[in-house]
Amino acid sequence: MRWSRAVTTGVALAAVVLPAQSLARAPRATRLHVPQVPAPRAAALPAAWWQPGAVGSWQWQLTWPVDTTKAVQVYDIDYDGAGTGTPAQTAAIVSTLHAQGKRAICYLETGSWESYRPDAGDYAPSILGKTLAGFADERYVDIRQLDGARGPTGKTLHQILVGRFQKCKNAGFDGVETDLDDTYLEGSGATGFPLTKQHQETFNTALAADMHGLGLAWFLKNGVASDGFTADMAAVADGTVNEQCWQFGECSALKAFVTAGKPILNAEYSGTRAAVCPKAMAFPMATMRKRTSLNAAVVWQCF
What tens digit of pLDDT does each residue of 176-202 get? Predict the structure, then answer.
């Protein structure tokens, strides 16, 4: 498990302006005028996965076992019990949360290899990069090789990650938080790979399709940037999990999610409720203060 800001501080944030879509005008018929009869409008179909809409409160606990007693709308918990829980235990926790009328988000990592996970032996050594600073048991992965090298068990990175998503689905989760899904922002000196914004967006968009295909919502993790990445991903993701945007003055970069009517689940590790909550609730985003251990404790919530 990991908590980290994947973007360095002090980055100037620019307003993101999306280009207007150009519409080609159809040529006009010159010889015969045929009246256009409007086609009957199809009935709106329900979304194939959870569309979160507004979320006012959440709990983020990556330790095990999970305290299910918090009076919040959404829980975000580790997909395999931080490497120690069983699938049956995870499914039982999700079932308990659902019985309380809460939604459950499945935390996992897509941009790194973790030595303590059950699927650690599936990764091809050639796609493993540098060790994450502060996390000796994790290494970056080469997201350019999503469908590239196969590991000792014959699986590509794509197949490994789809296997993780399937575990979330089997346990009954409603959505997935993909940590380390913005590793291009770290730079090649940190990751060991010359990753670009395009590499990251291709990688994330492919995985979003996999999650949606399984009926799971996708929550982007962090990804605050001034190069259009946040806005691009807001068009694909169903929400975002953010760390410390109030502390570092980065929250304005998340406006694309507000405009799209998609929730922002924000965790701060410093600051007071009186100073942060009025701004967070007006934004709006579901904000709380946590300890960096991401255990069951909540310092304060904005309600």
Answer: 999 999 999 999 999 999 999 999 999
